[in-house]
Amino acid sequence: MALGAKKAFAEEGGRWAHLAFIGCDASGNAGQERVRRGILIASIALPVTTELALDRFVRAYETRVSPQEVTVLKPESFPPEKQLLALSPAKEFAARSI
Questions:
Q1: What pLDDT, on a 0 to 100 scale, did the predictor assign at position 97?
Q2: Backbone region of residue 38 per phi and psi (left: phi > 0; alpha: psi in -120 to 50; beta: other values)
């Protein structure tokens, strides 16, 4: 979606043509490569759920105890958040407004 939005804004031109776009597919090589090449400014790496789901299923099957209803998985930023802060124009604004 981020690539489609970026393309649409670029075609529109004007002040929207230089927006930064963030993807949500850095779990695979494609998302990280788009960040490295500068196509996206960042991407979110979502944890793979298959192994966790299978482990929970097997444990529930073997123990006859239902797994907890909700499991929260922590996504990770690519590049790491500290690197993103270094790129942020808001950081410069915050430093000037103190």
A1: 43
A2: left
